[in-house]
């Protein structure tokens, strides 16, 4: 009988013929790899930059295009809603069409609609163009990770792959900082004012698209079991859009208005239909956009829900802080930009600090610290006086606490999410938490806008803003308090508590893969 079993490599190491690698680390020449990473980072920078730049310019955009008060939140919500709802759709699309095609599509599509935003004439045009821009933003994220995984195989003892992935991930805080600068300088000094923001990001993404065409290697494709879940993507997008639209319109036109009631009912009905449809797809062996079985793993459901609420605290404060400086204190765009600048610095410090702490103390405590920090940032503005300055009103501290809280909430939620699933599901699990943080903007802002607009006062122009900040405080405090029972005993990631069992889960998963592989091989006599 021939030898049917041989020593198999460690399951965490991908077998690679190192003589076929360039410098032993990459499947493509290093000069080409560096340009490819640069192109992917440029697109990621535009993703977060498009959000932060609008925090600086939101008041100027609303004034120029004559947004109604309840429409202003859609400057941010339209982008976040489309990118959040459709992000998971592009994970199987990368498999079906190839990551290279999706990455080029993402950069090109983003560029087209950024140009459209720069030429918008009405609020409705701008909102639609922003939503389409968000589609291009979210498509590039799973494509980038797929491409980097393709050109950077896992090599035992090499930290090069982790270094490149870290460089790519740094695009988020880099984009935040660059978005702040572009938002302030373009609005203040550009001949086309705030429209220059979108012209700048269109140019950056256009360069990314060209570099991807030149440097990105062909990507493998594979059949997605059951096909891509376009129906699920449509259901969740329509459902959440209708719900958030009705919640924002109801206070303005009346909750008894016919179309508000009708569309709200349709949106609420479509949500459980989406859940049932995804469960059905998973049970019959197809590929759902959202794998509902993941919600049964550990505290995955609780962490995603708390992550949405905790991150909404930061997003709400961040949104109202920019508007407060522009509409209440009358600050110019550059002055608003300078006030937001410390966020990028603290983001660079807070993200690695959160990652370090998660390796040594309970995930629950890290999450709660983040939620409380976000709540404190809103509290400083909620109790401030209109004459307070950036320094004597502790507003600098508010910006430091806000971004620190966001990083701690995000890192604890993201790392926990990928720690309770087997490796092949980590992309989808992490992607869902990313979706939750994107939806935090749309969901968080709609409720804060309802409360703020209900307390508008002609004698106290800052009253509605203070109520908006109090909603931010409420989000953060609720997340921190709810984390006590919901995350109790969660332990240190992969060391104590329930996540310590993930090692056994992964080991069992790989043992089954090896067993199935050998079981399929014929035994020769």
Q: What is this structure's SSE topology?
A:
Elements: H1 30-65, H2 74-86, H3 90-97, H4 99-118, H5 123-151, H6 160-169, H7 171-189, H8 195-215, H9 230-253, H10 258-283, H11 300-328, H12 333-340, H13 342-358, H14 363-382, H15 395-417, H16 426-453, H17 463-486, H18 502-520
Shape: globular
CATH superfamily of the largest domain: MFS general substrate transporter like domains
Give the class from helix and strand content and strand pairing: mainly alpha
Percentage of β-strand residues: under 5%
Q: What is the distance, rounded to the nearest whole angstrom, between the alpha carbons of the first and last residues? A: 4 Å
Global Rg: 24 Å
Broad CATH class of the largest domain: Mainly Alpha
- Number of domains in the coordinates? 3
What are the segments in which pLDDT stays under 50 over at least 5 consecutive residues? 1-19, 506-511
Name some characteristics of this structure.
525 residues; Growth Hormone, Chain: A; globular; mainly alpha
Would you kindly provide a written description of the structure presented here, covering whatever features stand out?
By secondary structure, the protein is mainly α. It has three domains: 18-223, Growth Hormone, Chain: A (Up-down Bundle); 230-285; 297-525, Growth Hormone, Chain: A (Up-down Bundle). Helices cover 71% and strands 0% of the residues. The protein has 18 helices and no strands. The protein has helices at 30-65, 74-86, 90-97, 99-118, 123-151, 160-169, 171-189, 195-215, 230-253, 258-283, 300-328, 333-340, 342-358, 363-382, 395-417, 426-453, 463-486, 502-520. It is globular and about 70 Å long. It starts with 29 loop residues before the first helix and ends in a 5-residue tail after the last helix. Residues 1-19 and 506-511 have low confidence and may be disordered.
């Amino acid at each position: 009988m021939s030898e049917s079993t041989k020593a198999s490599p460690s399951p965490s190491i991908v077998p690679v013929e190192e003589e076929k690698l360039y410098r032993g680390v990459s499947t493509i020449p290093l000069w080409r790899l560096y340009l490819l990473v640069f192109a992917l980072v440029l697109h990621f920078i535009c993703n977060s930059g498009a959000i932060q730049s609008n925090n600086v310019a939101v008041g100027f955009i609303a004034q120029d295009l004559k947004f109604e008060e309840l429409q202003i939140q859609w400057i941010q919500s339209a982008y976040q809603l489309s990118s959040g709802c459709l992000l998971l759709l592009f994970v199987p699309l990368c498999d079906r069409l190839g990551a290279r095609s999706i990455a080029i599509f993402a950069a090109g599509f983003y560029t087209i609609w950024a140009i459209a935003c720069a030429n918008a004439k009405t609020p409705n045009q701008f909102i639609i163009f922003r939503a389409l821009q968000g589609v291009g933003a979210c498509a590039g994220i799973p494509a980038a990770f797929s491409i980097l995984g393709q050109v950077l195989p896992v090599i035992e003892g090499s930290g090069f792959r982790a270094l490149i992935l870290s460089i790519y991930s740094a695009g988020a805080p880099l984009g935040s900082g660059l978005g702040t600068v572009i938002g302030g300088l373009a609005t203040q000094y550009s001949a086309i004012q705030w429209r220059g923001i979108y012209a700048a990001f269109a140019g950056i993404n256009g360069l990314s698209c060209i570099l991807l065409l030149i440097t990105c290697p062909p990507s493998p494709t594979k059949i997605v079991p059951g096909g891509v879940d376009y129906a699920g993507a449509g259901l969740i997008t329509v459902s959440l859009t209708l719900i958030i639209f009705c919640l924002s319109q109801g206070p303005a036109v009346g909750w008894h208005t016919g179309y508000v009631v009708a569309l709200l009912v349709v949106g609420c009905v479509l949500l459980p239909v989406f859940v049932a449809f995804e469960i059905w797809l998973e049970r019959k062996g197809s590929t759902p956009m959202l794998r509902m079985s993941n919600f049964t793993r550990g505290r995955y459901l609780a962490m995603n829900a708390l992550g949405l609420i905790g991150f909404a605290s930061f997003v709400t404060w961040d949104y109202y802080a920019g508007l407060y400086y522009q509409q209440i204190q009358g600050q110019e765009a550059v002055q608003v930009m300078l006030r937001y600048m410390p966020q990028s610095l603290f983001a660079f410090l807070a993200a690695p600090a959160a990652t370090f702490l998660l390796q040594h103390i309970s995930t629950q405590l890290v999450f709660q610290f983040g939620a409380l920090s976000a709540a404190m940032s809103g509290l400083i503005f909620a109790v401030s006086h209109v004459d307070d300055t950036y320094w004597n009103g502790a507003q600098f501290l508010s910006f430091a606490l806000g971004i620190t809280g966001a990083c701690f909430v995000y890192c604890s939620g993201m790392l926990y999410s990928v720690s309770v699933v087997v490796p092949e599901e980590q992309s989808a699990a992490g992607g869902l938490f990313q979706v939750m943080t994107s939806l935090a903007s749309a969901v968080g802002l709609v409720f804060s806008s309802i409360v703020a607009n209900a307390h508008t006062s002609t004698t106290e122009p800052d009253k509605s803003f203070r109520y908006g900040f109090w909603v931010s405080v409420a989000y953060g405090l609720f997340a921190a308090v709810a984390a006590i029972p919901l995350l109790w005993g969660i332990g240190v990631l992969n060391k104590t508590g329930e996540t310590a069992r993930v090692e056994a889960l992964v080991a069992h998963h790989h043992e089954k893969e090896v067993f199935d592989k050998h079981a399929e091989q014929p035994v020769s006599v």
